[in-house]
Each structure stands twice: as structure tokens, then as C-alpha cells.
Specification:
The chain is mainly beta. The protein has one domain: Sandwich (Jelly Rolls). 2% of the residues lie in helices and 37% in strands. A hairpin with a 2-residue loop joins strand 7 and strand 8. The protein is globular, with a radius of gyration of 18 Å. The relative contact order is 0.23. Bound molecules: calcium ion (CA) (3 copies). The site of one calcium ion (CA) has 8 residues, from loops.
Length: 195
């Protein structure tokens, strides 16, 4: 797990009007008053006015994560996100270039404004299972008007199971096996590994 509290080794960011930074959020704009795990988060503009800029296109890239031998792989992280309707501003997560999250398009009045830390779990098994090079990207693209606090990310984790003896719980369904066919697969908390 990466809690960003000792920095963010291997993470990179860039883009237009890039304001991604590691540090403590300061309740500017729609940002939280404190990190989920203190002191730090990785977020967009923690220290000036809190809000992302208009006409920005900025991304945060995880290090390469080795999921060799792992199945049922999930992205699990803490989210505090504030973004205008998706028809105007888009907050996305991609894994190896494949979109796995986008904020709802809304109707101009349904902004996504978190007011507490959200525990987010996203099934990325179809992309990440047994994949030695998994890269996660958080991105925000904004239009010329109206802006909010943007992404705040904490306790980032890609988790899966390595299989092996001694596990009992049965999971079946898409993503549970290499072929994505429904299969019986051992699964237990004891076998879940975080890295
Ligand atoms: Ca933290
Ligand atoms: Ca906007
Ligand atoms: Ca912010």
C-alpha cells in the first residue's frame, strides 16, 4: 500500500496546468481538512486555492506494479474527489490505458463532490490479472468554466490473490480465472496480499 506519508517513490505527474502534488490537504476549495492517513495525500492543488485550473489536462501515474500470478485483482484506494459534471470536467482512472472510472456525466447540476473519504474498490481483474506491468493513471480534464477541488488520493493499493493451499472461500465469475470464465477459485482474507 502507498500512503504517500513518506513521499511517493516512482509516481510521476504531468500535463497542462499540472498541479498534482504530495502533501497535507488544507481544506481549501473542496479539499479535505486532513488526509485519510496523515499527514499526506496525492492531490491536485493542495496549497494555493485548492481548486484545479480551467482548461487543464493533468495526470498522475503510478509506478509499474507486478501482478504476475495474481488473480481477482482490484484497485483499492481512498478518494476525496470534487469535480464538475462529467459533461464539462472529467475525472478518470485508467489502467494500462483502459478506462475503469469516470465521474457521472450529470445534467449540469450533479457535480461529484465528496464530503468525506470514500473507500473505493474497482475490479481491474480483466486487465491486471497475471500482468507483470500494470500502471494506474488518475487524470482530470477541465473545461473553461467552473472548477472544484479535484482529486485527493490516499492509501492506494492494488490487491489480489496468489492462490495456493489453505484457502477455502469460493469465488466465481468473470475475472476469477485467466480465461475470465466462471471458475472455482480459492480465496480468503488470509490469502489476500497487498503490495
Ligand atoms: Ca496518507
Ligand atoms: Ca469546469
Ligand atoms: Ca485540491
Amino acid at each position: 500500500m502507498e500512503d504517500f506519508d513518506s513521499g511517493a517513490a516512482g509516481w510521476t505527474h504531468g500535463g497542462t496546468h499540472d498541479e498534482w502534488q504530495v502533501g497535507p490537504p488544507q481544506h481549501y476549495s473542496d479539499d479535505p481538512a486532513s488526509a485519510y492517513s496523515t499527514p499526506n495525500v496525492y492531490g491536485i492543488d493542495l496549497s494555493t486555492d485548492g481548486a484545479y485550473e480551467d482548461d487543464s489536462s493533468q495526470r498522475l501515474n503510478s509506478p509499474t506494479i507486478d501482478c504476475t500470478g495474481k488473480y481477482g485483482v482490484r484497485l483499492h484506494y481512498k478518494r476525496w474527489l470534487a469535480v464538475e459534471d462529467g459533461v464539462y470536467d472529467r475525472a478518470t482512472i485508467t489502467v494500462n490505458g483502459i478506462q475503469v472510472y469516470v465521474n457521472p456525466p450529470g445534467n449540469g447540476e450533479n457535480h461529484t463532490i465528496d464530503t468525506s473519504w470514500q473507500d473505493e474498490v474497482i475490479d481491474i481483474s480483466s486487465i491486471a490479472n497475471n500482468n507483470p506491468t500494470v500502471r494506474v493513471r488518475f487524470e482530470l480534464a477541465s473545461d473553461p468554466g467552473l472548477h472544484f477541488g479535484g482529486w485527493n488520493i490516499d492509501d492506494f493499493c492494488v490487491e489480489g490473490i496468489g492462490g495456493g493451499p489453505g484457502t477455502e472461500e469460493i469465488v466465481s465469475g468473470a475475472g476469477a480465472g485467466p480465461s475470465n470464465a466462471p471458475v472455482v477459485k480459492t480465496w480468503s482474507h488470509a490469502s489476500r496480499r497487498r503490495w
